[in-house]
Design brief:
Radius of gyration: 37 Å
Distance between the termini: 85 Å
Helix content: under 10%
Shape: extended
Structural class: mainly beta
Largest sheet: 8 strands, antiparallel
Length: 689
């Protein structure tokens, strides 16, 4: 007969193991490794009784017998004992030490298990060990803070430049310092030796008054009071070299805002177009030949220290490796910022020595802002494209010496290679970290209002644009509804005719769902670049019989985008084909919303296409989510006019909207998420973008 075997006689509990013993959360230890605690601790032990003692219908129970001892100030040994409650084998049993134990005294303890019939050996016997701790009832003294980089109550350092603070408490048992600055970072530093000083490194991200708060922590975990050290951070240093590259057509060199003027090769053409929405006014075109370069014939940065290099760029091709900027280091390039074209596809790249970080998706004819950063403090190189980090930061070892800075080519052996073909503007070199707020400003492209149609009036079938631009032409079945100015009350005045208010302002566009639409004179937004559209819409039906489009803009064969209500999904959808082809793959994002049934204030919809990040978003009443966000790798430029209330279907028009439309707003550029909620209220939310 098989089954569990039980001992005929009781077996004693197992001797507690040192690894199962704790003083608070600290492991059992003696000597220099003993625990230090800031309050009378709770001792803990996990105890076991042999499984063979687990008789049928009986629990396998044990209790702990603790014993602690020390020598008092008079040299007399003191002992305390405690027997715990009974619990299941394998459980942790605690002893909260009495409050009258002495401070600054080595207290030893051990434990044994008792199953009610027998006891185990003490945990200190044989191969076991005594546990020791010291109760420390005194908190450490406050830390003293000093910094030559950031003098107290003075202006020091600067945005993007690392500096250090020395923190030191007079107490000899401090093991760490916990600190924070305004808004962060928060952290902990430890001295090389207990009781010694420690250094806090700090990278200022904003120009402002700041402070460092520090608490010293001793080995028992007790904290000192807080030391607060006030200082002020100025703005970051200007670039050490800066070429706007906006020199007049026909120039033979590029003037320097800072640094040395850069001579231009014969393959450089000045006076080219600048990226829209930036502070740049002109750029240079490089033809990709051996003559297409600019150089100051001198170094711009020290590649052995922290530096950053940035530029606006527009490649004329992406099928070969090309250099935006680099710096000679003997017969090689100390660094190279540009474009690489491996078999896996083109990518932006920043390389230092043998290290390289790559990412992003360069597109022929598309502007991008690049910034490569080498941070000596971290030893890593990072690449930013359009203000966002791409790839993974890599450990880098700079190559020396520092020779001539180059725009449009990279040193290799006795000559240059990877020459740039395309446009370059606003090249900057820094001897510090370019922090996120600066990076956002450098790469920012301010959206531009292209049209705002309030749809409150119409003259000769045309509803005007607010600032005198091209109007929207109303088709058959489209009318302007205007609310009454009357303040009469129909129930009290039989001659009173009450009309409900318009969606926004004094009027809105009403569409009959059969042929009603409005159309612009041409393609209002460039769908091959970043754009934003906003509209207010209210459906007349509670259960629409078919999809209905509120906004669209067509190409030759299909719509570049359309915003429609899909009744089968009970959702507003943004549909964007990847190509101007019938049946092309589509990016579709959506937001759930019940049809209005002609009631309420409608919904504020917004479409944002960010070409820099290849992202499309659909907003519903100022909000978006993961289901309303998608990816569109390559937006294409549509040639058709902006349509209100219909979409291209086959060889004609369809998906006519039955309902009301108001406040059509169009922007070149991608509005920030925080600005979207301002659309649809009769004003421009991007006045100060």
């Amino acid at each position: 007969m098989s089954g569990t075997a039980y001992a005929a006689e009781n077996l004693p509990p197992k001797q507690p193991l040192v690894q199962d013993l704790q003083t608070e959360t600290k492991a059992c230890a003696t000597g220099d490794n003993r625990a230090y605690v800031g309050a009378p601790p709770t001792l803990g032990a996990v105890l076991y009784d042999p499984e063979e003692d687990n008789q049928p219908a009986e629990a396998n129970l044990v209790r702990a017998e603790f014993e602690a001892w020390w020598t008092d100030a008079a040299g007399v040994e003191q002992r305390r004992t405690y027997t715990s409650y009974e619990t299941l084998s394998g459980s942790r049993l605690p002893w909260r030490m009495p409050e009258d134990i002495p401070a600054d005294t080595v207290i030893s303890w051990h434990v044994r298990a008792d199953d009610g019939k027998a006891t185990s050996a003490w945990s200190s016997q044989g191969d076991g060990s005594v546990c020791e701790f010291v109760y420390d009832d005194a908190s450490p003294e406050k830390a003293v803070v000093t910094s030559p980089d950031f003098p107290e109550e003075q202006i020091g350092g600067g945005v993007g430049v690392y500096g250090g603070f020395t923190v030191d408490s007079p107490s000899p048992d401090v093991v760490e310092y916990r600190y924070n600055f305004i808004g962060g970072p928060y952290g902990t530093v430890r001295p090389d030796e207990m009781g010694g000083p420690a250094t806090i490194r700090f990278l200022p991200l904003q120009a402002r008054p700041d402070y460092l708060s520090v608490r010293a922590i001793d080995r028992s975990g007790r904290s000192s009071g807080t030391t607060t050290y006030f200082f002020r951070v100025p703005s970051g240093r200007a670039p050490v070299a800066h070429w706007k590259l906006d020199d007049a057509a026909g120039a033979t060199s590029a003037a320097a805002e800072t640094g040395t003027a850069a001579r231009a090769g014969r393959g450089v053409t000045f006076g080219g177009p600048a990226p829209r929405g930036t502070g740049a006014t002109a750029t240079v075109a490089l033809d990709g030949s051996r003559h297409g370069f600019l150089t100051p014939d001198a170094p711009a940065v020290d590649t052995g220290r922290t530096f950053a290099v940035s530029a606006w760029v527009r490649p004329a091709q992406t099928d070969r490796t090309m250099t935006v900027a680099g710096q000679d280091a003997g017969d090689t390039a100390g660094f190279r910022l540009g474009l690489s074209s491996p078999d896996s596809g083109p990518a932006w790249t920043f390389g230092i020595g043998g290290a390289r970080v790559s990412g992003g998706a360069p597109e022929t004819g598309e502007w991008a802002h690049l910034l490569g950063l080498y941070d000596q403090e971290t030893g890593k190189a990072q690449l930013y494209v359009n203000g966002h980090p791409v790839g993974t930061a890599v450990e880098a070892t700079p190559a020396g010496p520092n020779d001539a800075f180059q725009i449009g080519r990279a040193r290799s052996g006795s000559g240059y290679h990877a020459r740039w073909h395309g446009d370059i503007g606003d090249v900057r070199a820094y001897d510090r970290v370019v922090v996120p707020v600066e990076l956002a400003e450098l790469s920012r492209r301010t959206p531009k209002l292209l049209g705002h149609w309030s749809l409150e009036t119409a003259t000769d079938g045309a509803s005007p644009e607010q600032k005198g631009g091209a109007p929207l032409r109303l088709g058959t079945g489209a009318t302007i509804y205007q609310s009454s100015d009357s303040s009469c009350i129909p129930d009290l005045d039989p001659d009173c005719t009450y009309t409900p208010p318009a969606l926004v302002g004094d009027g809105h566009l009403r569409l009959d769902g059969e042929s009603g639409h409005a159309v612009a004179e041409g393609p209002v937004v460039d769908t091959g670049d970043s754009f934003t559209l906003g509209v207010v819409v209210r459906l007349a039906d509670s259960e629409p019989a078919h999809p209905m489009t509120v906004l669209s803009q067509a190409g030759e064969h299909t719509d570049a985008f359309k915003v429609r209500y899909e009744p089968s999904e009970h959702a507003w959808q943004l549909v964007m084909p990847e190509k101007d082809e019938v049946g092309a793959a589509e990016t579709v994002v959506s937001q759930i919303a019940m049809a209005d049934g002609g009631e309420g204030q409608g919904h504020r919809l917004a479409v944002v296409y960010d070409d820099a990040t290849d992202t499309v978003k659909l907003f519903l009443d100022g909000e978006t989510n993961s289901q309303a966000t998608g990816t569109l790798p390559n937006g294409w430029r549509s040639s058709g006019a902006l349509q209100i209330g219909r979409a291209q279907v086959g060889d004609g028009w369809g998906e006519y909207l039955h309902g009301d439309v108001d406040e059509v707003q169009a922007y070149a550029g991608a509005l920030k998420d925080t600005r979207i909620s301002g659309l649809g209220w009769g004003t421009d939310p991007c006045v100060d973008c």
